[in-house]
Amino acid sequence: DRAGDLAIAAVDDPAPQVREAALPALTDDDALLRLAGDDEPTIAIAALVRHASRRGRASITTTFLVQLAAAAPHGTERVRIALAWLLAR
User: Fold this and answer.
1) pTM of the model
2) Percent of the chain residues topping a pLDDT of 90
Protein backbone atom coordinates (compact mmCIF):
# COMPACT_ATOMS: atom_id res chain seq x y z
CA ASP A 1 0.00 0.00 0.00
CA ARG A 2 1.64 3.17 -1.23
CA ALA A 3 -1.31 5.53 -0.80
CA GLY A 4 0.42 7.56 1.91
CA ASP A 5 3.60 8.01 -0.11
CA LEU A 6 1.67 8.94 -3.24
CA ALA A 7 -0.46 11.42 -1.30
CA ILE A 8 2.62 13.13 0.14
CA ALA A 9 4.13 13.36 -3.34
CA ALA A 10 0.89 14.92 -4.60
CA VAL A 11 1.10 17.76 -2.05
CA ASP A 12 3.57 19.57 -4.32
CA ASP A 13 1.77 18.83 -7.59
CA PRO A 14 1.09 21.95 -9.66
CA ALA A 15 -2.50 20.88 -10.41
CA PRO A 16 -4.92 21.86 -7.63
CA GLN A 17 -7.14 18.88 -8.50
CA VAL A 18 -4.29 16.51 -7.65
CA ARG A 19 -3.55 18.26 -4.36
CA GLU A 20 -7.23 18.16 -3.45
CA ALA A 21 -7.51 14.47 -4.36
CA ALA A 22 -4.58 13.68 -2.06
CA LEU A 23 -6.22 15.18 1.03
CA PRO A 24 -8.29 12.18 2.16
CA ALA A 25 -5.23 9.90 2.06
CA LEU A 26 -2.91 12.25 3.96
CA THR A 27 -2.00 11.26 7.49
CA ASP A 28 1.17 13.34 7.75
CA ASP A 29 0.59 16.49 9.81
CA ASP A 30 3.47 18.37 8.16
CA ALA A 31 2.03 17.68 4.70
CA LEU A 32 -1.42 18.81 5.86
CA LEU A 33 0.03 22.01 7.27
CA ARG A 34 1.86 22.66 3.99
CA LEU A 35 -1.46 22.32 2.17
CA ALA A 36 -3.06 24.61 4.74
CA GLY A 37 -1.09 27.40 3.09
CA ASP A 38 -2.23 26.46 -0.41
CA ASP A 39 -3.19 29.22 -2.84
CA GLU A 40 -6.51 27.49 -3.49
CA PRO A 41 -8.82 28.43 -0.58
CA THR A 42 -10.84 25.20 -0.74
CA ILE A 43 -7.68 23.11 -0.45
CA ALA A 44 -6.29 25.23 2.37
CA ILE A 45 -9.52 25.00 4.37
CA ALA A 46 -9.89 21.26 3.74
CA ALA A 47 -6.30 20.66 4.86
CA LEU A 48 -6.81 22.66 8.05
CA VAL A 49 -10.07 20.86 8.79
CA ARG A 50 -8.46 17.45 8.21
CA HIS A 51 -5.51 18.39 10.42
CA ALA A 52 -7.77 19.64 13.20
CA SER A 53 -10.06 16.62 12.92
CA ARG A 54 -7.14 14.19 13.12
CA ARG A 55 -5.70 15.89 16.19
CA GLY A 56 -8.97 16.90 17.83
CA ARG A 57 -10.30 20.40 18.20
CA ALA A 58 -9.12 20.75 21.80
CA SER A 59 -5.55 19.78 21.02
CA ILE A 60 -5.28 22.10 18.02
CA THR A 61 -6.88 25.20 19.58
CA THR A 62 -3.64 26.71 20.90
CA THR A 63 -1.89 26.20 17.55
CA PHE A 64 -4.78 27.78 15.70
CA LEU A 65 -4.84 30.75 18.09
CA VAL A 66 -1.12 31.31 17.49
CA GLN A 67 -1.74 31.15 13.73
CA LEU A 68 -4.63 33.60 14.07
CA ALA A 69 -2.44 36.04 15.99
CA ALA A 70 0.30 35.81 13.36
CA ALA A 71 -2.04 36.19 10.37
CA ALA A 72 -2.57 39.52 8.66
CA PRO A 73 -5.49 41.35 10.30
CA HIS A 74 -7.46 41.76 7.08
CA GLY A 75 -6.35 38.68 5.19
CA THR A 76 -8.28 35.58 4.25
CA GLU A 77 -5.94 33.34 6.26
CA ARG A 78 -7.71 34.31 9.50
CA VAL A 79 -11.06 33.31 8.02
CA ARG A 80 -9.62 29.96 6.86
CA ILE A 81 -8.22 29.20 10.30
CA ALA A 82 -11.45 30.10 12.10
CA LEU A 83 -13.57 28.15 9.62
CA ALA A 84 -11.33 25.09 9.92
CA TRP A 85 -11.58 25.16 13.70
CA LEU A 86 -15.37 25.46 13.53
CA LEU A 87 -15.70 22.62 11.00
CA ALA A 88 -13.35 20.23 12.82
CA ARG A 89 -14.94 17.54 14.91
Assistant:
1) 0.76
2) 27
